[in-house]
């Protein structure tokens, strides 16, 4: 996003006190830092989509004290602007994780490594993601239950999705499946390019209906729903923490880096946590439970640092083994081909250049309307089945219509997020920087490949080693290729003919010697430039104690450890066929009820 645009926003922010009807984008004050107590009933580690929900729901009981620890800072107004979501990846709100070099994926990206963004701040990844609200499918959760997790079927979890949600400004939804009284605001963007209707019509030509993907069936095409409130980002923090800052039984401590969960090796009882704040070491005790909600990378990392993990790994780095579990295994993620650009003959798209005019800026700030409300540039979704799908009514690919494409990324925030090298950009996209273009991202919904989070050493300030093994299974590449062919067919449909939509004709580096537009070419391109959506899950797998790969039981309690639960995306046995943010909030809602039941509070 253009520095000039950001300066415009900053200038308008400073003038906001003189504008009586300026929108509530600037309304949120910071959460005050508390005077820490030596012990709390519950200590929650991580203020992301799971931790924020748990902190809210547990403090509904005024007799319980809760400490919420977050390594990052509070949000600022720039994190609120949906269109510039990709900008957050180059700020301190992103942990900045990268994978190891692999032979199967990210071959053409910076350093040959995959960026693996994870949020660092109040709200976690919900302050850097693209705000898209979907839930996965009925089959996803029914499969969780079949894997030995009772009460995790779709019928069991649906009430918790509804409980969280406030969808009072939604349209084109199946209201039976949505809530209107929850903390989490969900709405459609305040802008729609002409491409949206054409995209949905093209989907109908392929046999897909215009549906609500969070309704009865996920298969179909739709406008996006986003976690927004009046055109601004509604993060987990804004939804679940800011409204309850006055609760005296909730303490939120930011810039607090947890380094260890304290577990009595004899009783195997979690008794508290160790963390660093202002370069000082602190210890707090939890009289009831420690709730680990640090995410699919940091949660397994902390468990291993605390003596819970694979015995061979912990022994190698000289960490005493308290419980031998397969922590860090089962890493899953949604990979996406976000680099497709379709060139047009008419300026109906959105780019860094097109949104620099003052009218759009004022329209956004004063009315919550205009292109700045597009969540990360995503305008519409299509959940589809390729010819390789073997399960009826179960999408294996998602198609995401983008209001712009990489050739419009003049100032580099999107390519920084994806890890696109400057040389690749100059070669493939720079020749078309003056040409309007849109994108259709192809997302692999049900990957077969599995990766791992590995402990590097015993230093808690060293990152873990991330081995995601993207596209290790050839089947994943084949599904992506079929999805790319569907995206191209949509762009070539009669609905886009008036725009003369043309795929970018310049081949990706590393694939020049392969016949362009062939299956072999797209297989090469997927391995070169496909990137993650940041939906890492599965590393603390939920399952019964008879499952040797599981880390937590169906109540999210760590096997063999008392007083310790994991409440984030790492507990998912399988990644859902949808975006994960709403699912993690659902997990937080359900976990809160399980904790309340455990401790005699209904």
Automatic annotation (TrEMBL):
Residues 1-17 form the signal peptide. One of its GO terms (molecular function) is flavin adenine dinucleotide binding. Keywords: FAD, Flavoprotein, Signal. Residues 119-142, 295-309 form the Glucose-methanol-choline oxidoreductase N-terminal domain. The keyword Signal applies. Gene3D superfamilies: FAD/NAD(P)-binding domain, Glucose Oxidase, domain 3. FAD binds at residues 125, 258, 569. Its cofactor is FAD. The keyword Flavoprotein applies. The active site is at residues 535, 579. InterPro entries: FAD/NAD-bd_sf (IPR036188), GMC_OxRdtase (IPR012132), GMC_OxRdtase_N (IPR000172), GMC_OxRtase_C (IPR007867). Belongs to the GMC oxidoreductase family. This is Glucose-methanol-choline oxidoreductase N-terminal domain-containing protein. It comes from Zophobas morio.
